[in-house]
């Protein structure tokens, strides 16, 4: 088989791989064991004040209450806010809802910004019927690390691996969808 044929075969196989086979993950801090995400993004012709207003616009577009922003510093180019979203995971019988929360830090300078995500929390929402209507009641708000333990630490009697994989995928999809949206806002 020629080298050209091998290269074509490699690219064909690469593009045919399902996206789920490519591992998605958030790195863990070695000392604390907590998930985090950080990235430096270059923006051509992006003055600090323009980037600042774009970041504020993104937080405002989330439609959450005014308590979303923790820090709003236009002089030093810093915006810090909390993100909350609802994710749904099928547990084999029904869809389970979770509230995912995390903190977004955006540090801005001319032509670039630093983005970091920290303090991930996951909260199970249980459906209770009150007066004939379903009301969501929060249960056990915990750090994301408690839900998504390394495979060696998972007690399979407590949680089914397929359900946990679905939860992991839903968490990553939610986080990276928000990241993609933020980056689009910052252009």
UniProtKB/TrEMBL annotation:
The record places domain DUF4468 at: 37-122
Q: Which domain of life is it from?
A: Bacteria
- Entry protein name: DUF4468 domain-containing protein
In which organism is this protein found? Answer: Adhaeribacter arboris
